[in-house]
Amino acid sequence: MMTxxxxxxxxxxxARRTLALEVRTDGRVVVRAPLRLPAxxxxxFLEEKRGWIEQHVQKQLIRxxxxxxxxxxxxxxxxxxxxxxxxxxxxxxxxxxxxxxxGRVTIRxxxxxxxxxxxxxxxxxxxxxxxxxxxxxxxxxxxxxCHRRYMNHSRAFWDAVGNVMPDYASQRAWLKENGGKIMAxxxxxxxxxxxx
Length: 196
Description:
The chain is of the alpha/beta class. Helices cover 47% and strands 16% of the residues. The longest helix is centred in the middle third of the chain and has 26 residues, at 73-98.
């Protein structure tokens, strides 16, 4: 009977108390382990997690083959310039429509947000929004302007979004489905699993 070959992994030891697994975007497996944990325990842990590891290595390799190429700094700069030419005007349009005031509009490339609104009314948009359809960009604009009235995601907030954009749920769904792929062109995502 053939035995499965041992899993290869990079071991990073630290003062942590638990074991944790990570599959990097290039398919490499990393184990974070306590300083004095025996190598045999790490090998046993890897074997227990073999199914999870193989599944996520395969996912990362498929994702890297299917992924759009990473964006260069020049492309990011161009997207931010395009956003700066487009999004302040859309913000002014929807603010008039909603009777809503706001402060400054800034454009940045952000890892986790498409937009944000400060308590002072300043709105920041992610330049990567220019890779989304125009209706999705408008949804983000409306979303941030509604935060001028509701600094939360309460039922009243979503009702306000729906009053301006009745189909907002489909725009929100588009971002949930495709947003990660856009963000991954700048910020690659790794798969992680913590274990006690």
